[in-house]
Specification:
Length: about 160
């Protein structure tokens, strides 16, 4: 059932995929992959709320708490939703679980945060706000490179 859901998802049949994932969850309420698929399909079905998508991600993570991909995917969703603290926590957890690829998670968060945060906070954006966003993004880029702020300053001078 889950495989059929992913097949439909890849074919752009998002509502049908969502239905397959829901059926898979009814058959096996402990199937993390079905909840993850439901979240992924739900993002592409307009009637599905952000809360429902986040709940599906959280359930997938609850059932498979060692899956870094679930955390990074939820982090990307949270960035899109403007939930930056949740996104940061999710990306950090993904990096913790998959240390070999931690630099990818840190840089992905840095770039996505840098691009999305000014849009979300546009009405409040001033030079100070932009500076705060840039600093956090830069800190995560440095983290992805395994560099401290001091090492970066030395390198650039």
């Amino acid at each position: 059932m889950v495989g059929q859901g992913y097949q439909l998802l890849s074919q752009g049949e998002y509502k049908k995929a969502l239905s397959k994932f829901d059926k898979a969850i009814k058959e096996d309420p402990d199937n993390a992959e079905a909840y993850f698929g439901k979240a992924e399909a739900g993002m592409l079905v307009p009637k599905v709320t952000s809360e429902d998508i986040l709940a599906a991600y959280n359930k997938a993570i609850e059932l498979d708490p060692e899956n870094a991909y679930y955390f990074s995917s939820m982090g990307a969703f949270c960035i899109d939703e403007g939930r930056f603290n949740d996104a940061e926590q999710a990306y950090n957890k993904a990096a913790e679980l998959d240390s070999e690829n931690s630099s990818n998670y840190y840089s992905e968060f840095a770039v996505a945060y840098y691009q999305r945060a000014p849009e979300v906070h546009e009405q409040f954006m001033d030079e100070t706000g932009l500076r705060i966003i840039r600093k956090k993004a830069l800190q995560y880029m440095l983290k992805s490179l395994g560099m401290s702020e001091e090492e970066a300053k030395d390198l650039l001078n």
